């Protein structure tokens, strides 16, 4: 499946407090968390997002807390994909577990500007900038993580494992 | 193959042959942890997985320490979910009331984590237990739900950065300064996806509490774990906490490291992480005339008894500046009682500090010390992200307990030797 949307570019070391500040962590509801996405970066940031848009970030995106509320908030805000130079480790696992697609492109993240139209093709491992015509490749997903994705995420994976051992 | 501490521990918990960095291995876990923010999501995922019971009711710890005593109805509802789950599954280690402490100070104290363990927690500072020689790391709630159900999880074997800390420590300079110095050197992504393994004469001489302070902040350099070898000192600590059968473990000579970082602490000043990232580190003498409005002494980084003693030694016979709120939060009930028994509370109260219950509270901008726009705080906590402790226009400076106490007295960021 391909994902097409407008790029929202954020900087380096965007932390989980920026993505969803602690005061909003009194719920697990996706829509509610999504309505406050990036509130720790800039008040009202989420208002610029239309469903299907794509977040583009610098190095170490999602550093800080282990709060799974962060990828949930991004999904809840309507962004199915984040393209970044690199992701913080816990966020990377959480993204996959929550079904948020994370594409690591290294220095090529700089080839996308705010407002560009982007097309992400995770299966082909390609992200295209439709505005400029530039195409970049992303790191392939490790085989074991594919196993999790093929089970529909970690919930499905564990469900299958529990069923096998029953 | 000679192995690092990380590779050795992973091997002890896996049926796979643990090889080089990058390999994905499945490991049995020794303890699984979640708190009042992350457990509700973990419980949601656990139920969605169709799991009936936790893999071992003695190896799951649920610690409601972030928004407790509950700050509002929503946070009370979250804790209720956790409490009812703990009861339903017969979970032994549930903490909420008079028994609750800041999770990463509480678990070691209760002997629930120790050397050679693999601990996964739905809290990024789970890496604290690396101070005890445990492979301990933070994960998200759904990963934790999987570990609660299966008793195992997967890891990518991390490459290891060896950090050699040598030299002669200066007065008022300690574990917090060493780790801030390292983060300043390698940056907040300097150990991304990697293990940090600490060694050297200074590390050998550090208390277990000091080692936990350092391991606690491995995540602030992006690290998966911050590991110390377990030695006689570790075993003494865990034995006192009621554990039996712990063993020493260190890296093999010839183990392969991605790189070695040397830190000579001789002549090192207290270190300050300036806003808004933990790697914006400067020696205190370069942070001049910065007025503060709040000082927070506590958290999983520096809320243990040694930290309380260090702060009390500075505050004794002195007064907190009238323009500063100084908030002291001993991290666990045991530390609270020790403070009381040792007369530290009298010192804090005479100085004009506020003494709070064990809670994560202000560290993450939860409650009990939120900053208004334009306010500055010096804190012994671990993060100074923009907006972390309240307003997006507030600023947080990270420091050791002596510096935080000295700054509370003068109202500006201060080297303890200057008061």
What's the CATH first level of chain A?
Alpha Beta
Structural class of chain A: alpha/beta
The CATH topology of chain A turns out to be: Aconitase, domain 4
Remind me, CATH topology of the largest domain in chain B? Aconitase, domain 3
Q: Largest inter-chain interface? A: A-B, 44 and 52 residues
What is the terminal separation of chain A in angstroms?
A: 34 Å
The level of helicity of chain B is 25-40%
User: How many independent structural domains of chain A?
Assistant: 1
What is the average of the pLDDT values of chain A? 94
Report low-confidence residues of chain B grouped into runs of 5 or more. Answer: none
Which structural class best describes the helix and strand composition of chain B?
A: alpha/beta
Give me the CATH superfamily of the largest domain in chain B: Aconitase, domain 3
Average pLDDT of chain B, rounded to a whole number, is 98
Q: What is the spatial order of strands in the main beta sheet of chain A? A: 4-3-2-1-5-6-7
Which CATH architecture of the largest domain in chain B? 2-Layer Sandwich
Report what the structure shows:
The complex is a heterodimer of chains A (166) and B (419). Chain A is built from six helices and seven strands; from the N terminus they run βααβαβαββββαα. By secondary structure, chain A is of the alpha/beta class. Chain A has one domain (3-140): Alpha-Beta Barrel (Aconitase, domain 4), CATH 3.20.19.10. In chain A, strands 4-3-2-1-5-6-7 form a seven-stranded mixed sheet, covered by helices on one side. Chain A is globular, with a radius of gyration of 16 Å. Chain A starts with a strand and ends with a helix. The mean pLDDT of chain A is 94. With 419 residues, chain B is α/β, with parallel strands linked by helices. Chain B folds into two domains: 5-262, Aconitase, domain 3, CATH 3.30.499.10; 271-418, Aconitase, domain 3. In chain B, the strands form five sheets. A five-stranded parallel sheet of chain B has the order 4-3-2-5-6. In chain B, strands 16-15-14-17-18 form a five-stranded parallel sheet. Chain B has a four-stranded parallel sheet with strand order 10-9-8-11. In chain B, α2 (39-48) crosses α5, α6 runs parallel beside α8 and α11 runs parallel beside α14. The longest helix of chain B is centred in the first third of the chain and has 17 residues, at 73-89. Chains A and B meet through α4 and α6 of A and α2, α3 and α5 of B. Chain A: Heterodimer of LeuC and LeuD. Chain A: It is an enzyme of class 4 (lyase). Chain A: Catalyzes the isomerization between 2-isopropylmalate and 3-isopropylmalate, via the formation of 2-isopropylmaleate. Chain A: It holds the Pfam family Aconitase_C. Chain A: Its EC number is 4.2.1.33.
């Amino acid at each position: 499946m391909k994902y097409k949307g407008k790029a929202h570019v954020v900087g380096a070391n965007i932390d989980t407090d920026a993505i969803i500040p602690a005061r909003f962590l009194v719920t697990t509801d996706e829509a509610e968390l999504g309505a406050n996405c990036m509130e720790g970066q800039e008040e009202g940031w989420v208002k610029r997002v239309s469903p299907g848009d794509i977040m583009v970030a610098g190095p170490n995106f999602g550093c800080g807390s282990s709060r799974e509320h962060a990828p949930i908030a991004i999904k809840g805000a309507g962004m199915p994909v984040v393209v970044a130079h690199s992701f913080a480790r816990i966020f990377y696992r959480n993204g996959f577990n929550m079904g948020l697609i994370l594409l690591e492109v290294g220095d090529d993240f700089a080839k996308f500007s705010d407002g560009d139209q982007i097309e992400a093709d995770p299966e082909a491992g390609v992200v295209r900038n439709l505005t400029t015509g530039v195409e970049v490749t992303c790191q392939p997903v490790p085989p074991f993580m594919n196993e999790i994705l093929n089970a529909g995420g970690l919930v499905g994976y564990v469900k299958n494992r529990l069923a096998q051992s029953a | 193959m000679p192995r690092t501490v990380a590779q050795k521990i992973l091997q002890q918990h896996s049926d796979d042959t643990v090889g080089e960095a990058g390999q994905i291995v499945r490991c049995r876990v020794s303890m699984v942890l979640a708190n009042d923010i992350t457990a509700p999501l973990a419980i949601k995922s656990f139920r969605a997985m169709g799991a009936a019971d936790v893999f071992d009711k003695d190896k799951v710890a649920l610690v409601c320490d972030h928004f407790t005593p509950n700050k509002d109805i929503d946070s009370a509802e979250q804790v209720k979910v956790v409490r009812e789950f703990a009861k339903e599954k017969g979970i032994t280690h549930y903490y909420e009331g008079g028994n609750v402490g800041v999770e990463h100070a509480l678990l070691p104290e209760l002997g629930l984590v120790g050397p050679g363990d693999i601990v996964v927690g739905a809290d990024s500072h789970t890496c604290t237990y690396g101070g005890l020689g445990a492979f301990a790391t933070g994960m998200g709630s759904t990963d934790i739900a999987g570990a609660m159900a299966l008793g195992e999880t997967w890891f990518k074997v991390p490459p290891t950065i060896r950090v050699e800390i040598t030299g002669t420590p200066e007065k008022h300079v300690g574990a917090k300064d060493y780790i801030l110095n390292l983060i300043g050197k390698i940056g907040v992504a300097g150990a991304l996806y990697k293990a940090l393994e600490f060694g050297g004469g200074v590390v050998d001489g550090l208390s277990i509490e000091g080692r936990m302070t350092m391991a606690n902040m491995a995540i602030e350099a992006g690290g998966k774990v911050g590991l110390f070898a377990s030695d006689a000192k570790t075993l003494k600590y865990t034995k006192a906490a009621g554990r039996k059968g712990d063993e020493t473990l260190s890296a093999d000579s010839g183990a392969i490291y991605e790189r070695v970082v040397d830190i000579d602490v001789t002549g090192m000043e207290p270190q300050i992480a300036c806003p808004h990232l933990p790697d914006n580190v400067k020696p205190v003498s370069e942070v001049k005339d910065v007025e503060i409005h709040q000082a927070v002494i506590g958290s999983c980084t520096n809320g243990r008894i040694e930290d309380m003693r260090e702060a009390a030694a500075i505050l004794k016979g002195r007064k907190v500046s009238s323009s500063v709120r100084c908030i002291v939060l001993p991290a666990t009930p045991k530390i609270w009682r020790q403070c009381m028994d040792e007369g530290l509370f009298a010192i804090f109260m005479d100085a004009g500090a506020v003494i709070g219950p064990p809670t994560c509270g202000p560290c993450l901008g939860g409650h009990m010390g939120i900053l208004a726009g334009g306010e500055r705080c010096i804190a012994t906590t671990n993060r100074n992200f923009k907006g972390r402790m309240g307003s997006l226009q507030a600023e947080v400076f990270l420091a050791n307990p002596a510096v935080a106490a000295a700054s509370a007295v003068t109202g500006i960021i201060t080297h303890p030797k200057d008061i």
